[in-house]
Write a structure and sequence with these properties.
heterodimer; A: alpha+beta; Heat Shock Protein 90; 5-stranded mixed sheet; 7 helices; 5 strands; 67% helix; elongated; B: mainly alpha
Chain lengths: 270, 211
């Protein structure tokens, strides 16, 4: 009888333990889900903040570019045109006095050439006309050639894609890719102390791949991420924003002899 | 107040508590889908089981047969509810129900006088589905706020009731044949868990929104 009572008590206790576990399990489920949702919303907020930061950086870069172009027009071209105006007035006066100076007049042509160059450069910075006329691939090839011609850095250009002139992107995308490439090359020239550069174009799994290979100091993805979020990392922020707009990915790989930066852009409209 | 008096009080409360989800169901009936209609039938079945049990008890007739029919029907309905939730195909659902019926009859054939194992078996199946629902929530994370979702409460109610009563079902005849005070005490716990189950179901039904 006593044993039976003990067993019955055991059943009651067992059931209460079952009950306790079920309640604990349900509470755990609710809390676990709450925690996951909380983390998820936190992550989304951080991502949104980062995106805002990137777009702000992009807008700031654009403003600075506009400022630079305006300064260029105001400080370089405007004085040139002023000097030309004064020279023309002087020539008119000399003509009236029959003292016209051919040499001085010829020198003014150089001023006109300088002003034209200045305007060309400024308009090129606004929208590279070369890119508009010849497309991304030819523009990149030409840019690499200009690095060699100016003896800034020995650089070579390799294109293993089946696209010879036109890249499979719309003009706006090509412009963004071009600006990303220029920013990357500019960073390589400024920070890596490399002695040679190679730009390789290829197509991999429906991605247009642009690889920048150099023998200077490399940088890793984590380091780039760190520099992007420090104050003043405007160039990297703008670069990241452009990559984001393109729906592309950029990878930084640090090597002992060679380091690479790989830009992968998905091909949408082949 | 003796253990029997406490048991009788809880017994009345338990029988009455099933009316709460039924009344709420009647209010929310227009928003019911197939799954909830099945739940409503489940509630009506609970109520009719209580009424039939009471009538049979007054007439000194054994409730075993009616209780077994109730258990198997209850099992079928709960499998239907969970099959809807897990989006099982009709074939899968019918296979589970058929398997359940076969095992139920097999257990009944082995032990014709006892309903212990068959009830415990149904409890076990329902607990399995209840736990599966939570694991699915962890994997998919499709429910934005768990406590606002009606099926969370319904699942909790079913898991709580059938989980708590599993051991009681398994040893029901043993408890019945033992010390009367302890038997009334254990049945009182079962009744409390039934009241809680009805209360949780009421919350679940109340949370239903018209789609």
């Amino acid at each position: 009888m006593e044993n039976q009572k003990d067993l019955a008590l055991l059943i009651v206790l067992g059931s209460l333990v079952f009950c306790f576990f079920i309640v604990a399990f349900v509470l755990f489920a609710v809390n676990y889900q709450k925690r996951i949702l909380h983390n998820d919303s936190k992550l989304k907020a951080v991502k949104a903040l980062q995106q805002i930061e990137l777009f702000n950086a992009s807008a700031e870069i654009e403003e600075r570019e506009k400022e630079r172009i305006a300064r260029n027009l105001h400080d370089e071209i405007n004085p040139l045109l002023n000097v030309l105006k004064q020279n023309l007035q002087r020539h008119r006066l000399y003509i009236m006095k029959n003292k016209f100076q051919v040499e001085s007049f010829n020198q003014d042509f150089e001023l006109i050439d300088k002003a034209m160059d200045g305007i060309r450069n400024s308009s090129y910075e606004l929208v590279p006309s070369f890119l508009i006329d010849y497309g991304l691939i030819v523009s990149l090839k030409d840019y690499i050639r200009s690095l060699n011609d100016a003896e800034i850095l020995p650089a070579n250009f390799v294109n293993t894609t089946h696209y010879n002139e036109t890249a499979p992107f719309i003009k706006q995308e090509q412009l963004n890719i071009y600006r990303v490439c220029l920013e990357v090359i500019n960073n390589i020239l400024k920070h890596t102390a490399c002695s040679q550069l190679s730009l390789n174009l290829s197509v991999l799994l429906n991605n247009f791949v642009i690889e920048f290979k150099h023998d200077g100091l490399g940088i890793s993805n984590a380091e780039v991420e760190k520099f992007t979020h420090v104050e003043g990392g405007l160039g990297l922020k703008s670069l990241k924003a452009r990559v984001l707009i393109l729906g592309a990915n950029i990878y930084y790989e640090k090597g002992k002899e060679n380091s690479t930066i790989v830009l992968k852009i998905p091909i949408k409209n082949d | 107040m003796s253990a029997k008096d406490i048991y009788i009080s809880f017994s009345h409360l338990s029988s009455l508590s099933v009316l709460i989800p039924i009344i709420i169901s009647l209010i929310k009936l227009s928003a019911f889908n197939k799954q909830l209609k099945a739940l409503f039938i489940y509630l009506l079945l609970n109520l009719s089981n209580d009424v039939i049990g009471y009538v049979l008890f007054i007439n000194n007739t054994s409730t075993t047969f009616s209780f077994e029919i109730f258990t198997i029907l209850q099992g079928f309905i709960v499998v239907y509810i969970y099959s809807n939730q897990f989006k099982f195909s009709h074939r899968t659902m019918l296979s589970i129900q058929l398997l359940m019926l076969c095992l139920f009859l097999f257990i009944h054939f082995i032990s014709p006088t006892s309903s212990d194992f068959s009830n415990a078996f149904v409890d076990l199946i329902i607990c399995f589905f209840g736990v599966r629902y939570f694991t699915q929530i962890f994997i998919n994370l499709q429910v934005p706020v768990l406590t606002n979702y009606y099926f969370f409460w319904i699942n909790t109610a079913l898991l709580f009731y059938f989980g708590t009563t599993f051991l009681f079902s398994l040893f029901e005849n043993f408890i019945r044949s033992g010390d009367e005070t302890l038997a009334f005490f254990t049945w009182s716990i079962q009744l409390i868990s039934n009241i809680t189950h009805n209360f949780l179901l009421s919350i679940g039904i109340w949370k239903i929104k018209k789609t």
